Amino acid sequence: MKQKHILVVDDDSSLRRVMKMQLEEAGYEVSLASDGEEAWIKLQETEPYLVITDLRMPTTGLELLRCITKEGLQTTVIVITAFGTVETAVEAMKLGAYDYVTKPVDFDALLVVVHRAMERQNLLEEVRNLRSALDARYGFEGIVGQSKSFLRVLDQAARVSQRDTTVLIEGETGTGKELVARAIHHNSQRRNRPFIAINCGAIPHELVESELFGYTRGAFTGAVAHKQGRFEAADGGTVFLDEVGELPLEAQVKLLRVLQGGEVPKIGANTPIKVDVRVITATHRNLAAMVEDGTFREDLYYRLAVVPLRIPPLRERREDIPGLIEALFLRAKKLHHLEQVTLSSGVRRRMTAYSWPGNVRQMENVIERLLVLSASDLITEEDLPEELTSASANNVSTADFWRDLPEQGISLEAVERNLICRALERCGGNQTHAARFLDISRRTLIYRMEKHGLASAEATTADNPSQG
């Protein structure tokens, strides 16, 4: 789209020429059409920023305006009408026209209207670009993950975003709970209203109620002015309570009241304040166990967990790790203007094999650290932090890997054989890649393949396709 392109539509050829000359002198690019039908063709070819159209033509300006509105074209329309037929211009305004001018045309006045229309169109363009950026950042398609377990969570989140109900997002620290909460809000009918995130664990217990619900002047010593609470500020939008398990019991009672009646108990106020908010909560703790312990209210738990979503940790969706590494690395490079920096294959291998106990947040921090401290355009294994190069890092979190060992015991030989088979399958039969994946030498891999009767002509020639 050309930012200052104007399409002038009028069946009066002399008026078209004069308008073209006046607008071009003002710095605009101008194209012409003699009627609505010709204008419609040019609209689809050139996508002008602004259309100036006469209302009375063989194919009228009103018909052209209806087509523009119906097709949702992103252009602003100014109409020209004869003096004394302003009611027709009013009809055009109802159909979506920005403004009108009357004949005979006062070109100075027309240029003022055009300038205002261009400013409006520039603003609309900025809004569309911002919306597009928000869609890319907070849309579900912008969240990286292809594992079945993670896609199942995203599917549930996408469906619940269309329903105005409470959601409880469970998951370990760093799994992206707030990102999912923002995506739910951004894809809901409340997307144009506030999204207010509150970390309940970061607020001192004695200040929780005043932060969430606000207070009136004189409600207590030090309350020298009215304070708007977070729920009041989010009216019409979404409140996201992160680490909701950290709320003290007194605040839990008042939160339950908000959920049940949509009323905020402002400290010091005689009557509660009505609010319309959606509540999304998140926690890394086991709220059901806290209910059993008496540290979390049972009635509140069931109010919050109408739709529970559990985000699996990275160690349970290892197939998502390579895609996350790539996405976070590209984002960090763009942020720090280091587009030329790359990761070596060894770094990618170690990062893929690592269990990431801190999940996505830890990965993001490690990648940013590697970038800002990189001494060259290639990040190698020597640049990796100790947690990724230690022996335990290469053990792929064995405690988690073996946590479901059968009580009757297991065959070590069978496990080793199965691991080698799966590694070869994952690497397409390539022994070098499979050995790297298992963190052993290729010679050791071949020895163990022979030990388990896995050596074959296909396998031994897989690294050298020319022999096949």
From TrEMBL:
Residues 143-372 form the Sigma-54 factor interaction domain. Coiled coil: none annotated. InterPro entries: AAA+_ATPase, AAA_lid_NorR, CheY-like_superfamily, Homeodomain-like_sf, HTH_Fis, P-loop_NTPase, Sig_transdc_resp-reg_receiver, Sigma_54_int. Residues 5-118 form the Response regulatory domain. The keyword Transcription regulation applies. PROSITE patterns: RESPONSE_REGULATORY (PS50110), SIGMA54_INTERACT_1 (PS00675), SIGMA54_INTERACT_2 (PS00676), SIGMA54_INTERACT_4 (PS50045). GO terms for molecular function: ATP binding; sequence-specific DNA binding. GO terms for biological process: phosphorelay signal transduction system; regulation of DNA-templated transcription. This is Two component, sigma54 specific, transcriptional regulator, Fis family.
